[in-house]
Amino acid sequence: EVAALFGLHRLHSAAESLTGTMLALRLASRMTARRASSRRLSVPSVMKAAVVREPGAADALKVESDFPVPDIAAGQVLVKNAFAGINFIDTYHRSGLYARDLPFVGGQEGGGEVVAVGSDVKDVKVGDKVAYSVFGSYAEYTAVPAAKCLPVPDDVPMDVAVSCVVQGLTAHYLTSDAHAQLIQPGEWMLVHGVGGGTCQWAAQMAKIRGYKVIGTCAKGKGDIGKATGVDELILYDEAPGTAYEDYESVDGLAKVLEITDGAGCKAVIDGIGKATLDMSLGSLAQRGIFVSFGNASGAVPAYPPLRHIAKSSFMCRPKLLDYTRNREELLYRSNEIMGWLQSGQLKVSVDTSFPLDQAAEGHKYLESGASTGKVLYRID
Fold first, then answer.
1. CA-CA distances (angstroms) from residue 269 to 100, 172, 215, 265?
2. Residue 159 CA, distance from chain mean position
């Protein structure tokens, strides 16, 4: 009888153990499902995107409604875009000036809501509002490395946040680091094209950093140029059909030298390119630096280094990637910009937004020079 009772006890123990194991497995399965659902919202398999299959003029940018939604790898998140920024570098990619593998989804700036999170992502979650700069933003969805996601404060509208990514970060590094500290607060900086785009930001940031600023812009954008807070503004005639001013309509170099009592500027920020090369070099002070970052009027042609000997000046041709080398540097720039936006020190002008279906029209508008602020795509 004792043996029988002992055997019965063992059977009861085994049954209890099996029941406990099954309950644990069910609980683990439910927890796994909950974790999975918290890391992904419902996402379709195809999406609307503006695609370049052959380089060319603005009409080479074609809107497709059945482009595959990108998969996310470890360390990435999927962002459902609300806005995408339109930048001059996008037109260089579309035209083939800067070669890309074909086909490609245009754009490299966007923002919206995180709808899926890959493995190994710890500091970004589903539902977060983020902005970013990676290729492929002219689309309903973009796969973004979590390390590239910029948190968007609740009191910063998404269109403003997206506006600050490429142009804002570019203006930040141009006015904080690209000049290699060859300019100090209280010294003169020349900023071309303050009537719109990146240099509308750069002029304001230069003033925040304590530089004296000479801005240039077209007469039709004079009010916008003045609103940046520049100390002096040189106005040029319009150059119809272009994204820049008629830099031969006024002797800008003479005005710069007059303003600076012949000394020139310790830094020149130039996104115009070919049309302003001579003025930019001539405007430099002794041991000043020419920072050339754009090609609105055409690429800067090669020139002899001996042109710098007169004032022992410097030249730099930087790019954003080299000034956002890691997440710490990216967040340092982004957080400072967001703080300026929140405090009201920095004003962002969103010129207009085009629906993504009008992708080609957005590029045409930017290239026409008509914009007075940031140009975006709305992605509904």
1. 27, 12, 10, 10
2. 12
| Per-residue pLDDT tens digits for 295-334 | 889 999 999 999 999 999 999 999 999 999 999 999 999 9
- Tokens 């570098």 locate to 89
Residues 22-73: tens digit of each pLDDT = 444 444 444 443 344 447 779 999 999 999 999 999 999 999 999 999 999 9
Positive or negative CA dihedral for 183, 186, 190, 196? Answer: positive
Tokens standing for residue 155: 């009191």
The alpha helices in 109-167, defined as continuous H runs, are: 158-163
Are 376 and 85 in contact by the 8 Å Cβ rule? The answer is yes
Gap between the Cα atoms of 194 and 192, Å rounded: 6
Nearest residue to 316 (alpha-carbon basis) of 283, 285, 293, 287:
293
Beta strands in 27-99 (DSSP E): 46-52, 61-68, 76-85
Q: Model's pTM, two decimal places?
A: 0.80
Based on C-alpha coordinates, what's the Rg of the chain?
27
Give the start-end residues of each E strand in the chain: 46-52, 61-68, 76-85, 104-105, 110-117, 129-132, 141-145, 150-151, 188-191, 212-218, 232-238, 245-246, 265-270, 284-292, 314-316, 350-355, 374-378
Question: In the structure encoding, which two tokens stand for residue 44, read together?
Answer: 């379709």
Rounded Cα distance between 4 and 69, Å, is: 65
Going by C-alpha positions, the residue among 261, 269, 310 that lies closest to residue 286 is 310
| Element housing 110 (H / E) | strand 110-117
